[in-house]
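User: Show me sequence and structure for the first protein, then do the same for the second.

Assistant: Starting with the first protein.
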Amino acid sequence: MPITQLDKDKFTQVCAACGAERSLSLSDAKPEDTDEGDHLLRLPACSNCGSIELLVPQQTDPDTHPNPGGFTHLHRLLIDELDEHVAPARVNAALKSRRAKHFPNGFKVRLPRGLVPSADREPGDRPRRAETLEPAADVTPKSDLST
């Protein structure tokens, strides 16, 4: 789930599974490389529910997002910035300077209303689309339809 703030030595993350907000040290995000050559950042297990999350930095051009200034755009830039703090060898100076202009008040982003999972779910329950985005239409599963 989202990184909501990045500071010099820590960052704030909201757990995708339970909605717990937690403050993590930059050293808590562990860089990994996949066999396919992708870069990942592994976050430690949530102390509330045990969920482990992976972030996928993309180091994309900060000025070419289809919804500039929107939540997904700014969140993507925060992940790329976090990646550069955790794994300095991945720093792209040209993108870094252009990324900063999107955060005039520091590297932070507000969560869109309704994105945080419900706090009343049991640990381990996955958020459903209706809880994370917008109410879904009431659909009856095929197995429940009478013939």
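Switching to the second protein now.
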Amino acid sequence: MPFNRFALAQYLGSTGLYLFAISGFINQGGMYAGLGLMLAGFLLMADRGWVSLRREPAFPLALVLTVYIVVRGASAMSAWPDEPSADFLAATWDLVVIGGLFTLLVGWWLAGDNRRIALVLQLAVLSLFLGVLKGIDWQHFATFMAHRPLFGMGNGAGLYALVAMTGLLIFRSSPLFDGGWQQRWMPPLLVKSIVSVLFLVFTVVFLLSQTRAAWLASLLVLPAVFVLMLRNNGGAQKKWVARFEVVVLVVLVLGVSLGAGTISKRLGAEQSSLMLLFSGDLGSLPVSSVSYRVWLWQDALQRIAEHPLLGWGPGSAPLLIQEAAVPGGLGHYHNLYLQLAAELGLVGLGLFALWSLVVAKAATGAWHERRMGFDCLLFLAALLAIFLIVSCFELRHDDERGQYLLILSGALALTFRLYRSPPARE
């Protein structure tokens, strides 16, 4: 039997895609193994892949961004020769992972196929659910829940739960999942029940993780999602959406009721700091998470002013913070934009901003060309808004789960452009 490299490439790529999807929130090794399999499959049929990549502006931009990150990482290592090189390599790699090339790889293997996209998104939700279960300390459950449970995901738990809630809200009424395995093997009532249970679980995680940045994002984004869903759906589907939104609101009210004490305690602890901050009296700020951020942001702005164009290099932020003796002992600036500007300079920040614009334009272009449904566009817009808001107060690019979220969302935005198939919607 002759060797069929295309069949082998398809097997490796598809296996890697699904391994990547299911591993994102539970196993970093599985996530990277999935990316490795997809890369191996792509290289086996690189002649076909190159046809898709070379016509997209996202590819040369991702290549330039990746090279810039690597060069700045090498510069940082030479600037601090006495510091462990592994720290600089790890920080450089964290930025390379979200620099665009892996996003294009996953988008290529999604192939603009709605069935494949639906399965990958379902596996992503399952991965988050399993990650939550894995992160619970079952032996000391009462003690675990009594404090601030982060479910083994750090401050990102609230962000990931909010994204999952938004996805369940949008895609449950979406034609994207018509004909999926759940429609063939599971009664519709059971599917709706599973969605409702998952939504409740993620709501509890969202509240108990006490991520105030995610709470703020939900207040700004979810109402807009509700309105746009109602405006875009008509007839019987609009009535179904309205009913589901009522269920969602009931679940949210229930979740808020269960976590009312947590919310009050979490917000009340910073009330005096916020009042002093808004009054401009920064010198009187008490020690709190708000004051830590203010002090960090002040130092970041000073560092950016010292090296505005090229920054100090990947991995430099912990050293700069330690050198400035910023209280709190935190190793980053608790703001993605300031972190990127401090480490990569305005050039690096501008390249990442341009990458985001190119990806967003690809998504809107695919929608205008009738290749992407409104549900996908709405989800991507909501995810982008949530991430931009949360990134004002914390970082997720140095966390493999955050990297997974950025890669997957970018791939979903680009896949319909990489594959110029006939229009997927009427």
